[in-house]
Specification:
This protein is an alpha/beta fold and 282 residues long. The protein contains 11 helices and 9 strands. It has 2 domains: 175 residues, Rossmann fold (3-Layer(aba) Sandwich); 92 residues, 2-Layer Sandwich (Pantoate--beta-alanine Ligase, Chain: A,domain 2), CATH 3.30.1300. A 6-stranded parallel beta sheet has the order 1-4-3-2-5-6, with helices on both faces. The chain has a 3-stranded antiparallel beta sheet with strand order 7-8-9. Helix 2 links the parallel strand 2 and strand 3. Helix 7 packs across helix 8. It starts with a strand and ends with a strand. The mean pLDDT is 97. The structure holds adenosine monophosphate. Adenosine monophosphate binds next to helix 2 and strand 5.
Amino acid sequence: MVIFKEAAQLGDFLRHKVENNLNIGFIPTMGALHSGHISLVKNAHAQGMFTVCSIFLNPTQFNDKKDYEQYPVSTDADIEMLLQAGCDVLFLPSVEEMYPGGTDKMKTYDFGYLDTILEGANRPGHFKGVGQIVSRLLDIVKPHTLYLGQKDYQQCMVIKKLIEILGLPSLNLVISPTLREQDGLAMSSRNRRLTEPQRALAALLYQCLVSIQTKQAGGNFAIVQKECTDLLIAKGFTPEYVALADANNLQLLSNYDNSVPMITLIAAKIGEIRLIDNILLQ
Ligand code: AMP
């Protein structure tokens, strides 16, 4: 695995690979890697891609400064995991390398409705930062295929829109399923910050999603939504949303609607740690 810290050098190296008929598969991450991230890398590798992973803790997508400062960092262990997974290139840039003119100078993108709901509404400025960094990374790496996780479903939709705005119709997007711990908790870098008692409770988010799916037959989302919210509060969480939406466009649904593909999404804080999860309804 070759490690690059500078954009220009990485760009030159990858251009040479493309000239030699290799397809670039790209997995952007913020590090503190776990098996969920690694599943994306393995997927790219298995699909015959020349696999490029980036680790960059992007300051502009953190609306909460404390969350940024306390985000786990484990670069040495990350490198070891990427080596084992068959990653070809790791891009490990500095903030100055990614925002050469400063974070304020960088172009921003308008995601319209998607930025007004759920994560957009609860994390002002978050998707603006995501748009800035993903557009910069795509410009440097110029991948054929971009690998993202369903865990960040709304982010996947924002990036899909960004690809449209940037006019990159040949860029292929692969969205992989969420990897979970044995008790159902979605793997997340932030899970490392949970205390033992918090960790024991954290699978409740997934249990709520499953109960929203199961109670579809009863046909009253408002009741299930309230049950979940009350249960989360009773167990010491601060829920931000328990939502049901059309999976095609994230239009929020006030009740189950079998005429569209549905997704249920949840965000809640446990102590200082903010967790999100979702499942597609069957
Ligand atoms: P992050 O480092 O949190 O920015 O995540 C980098 C990529 O890994 C994103 O596309 C995430 O959606 C994806 N990812 C994060 N957690 C998981 C998971 N548990 N399973 C699969 N993919 C994940």
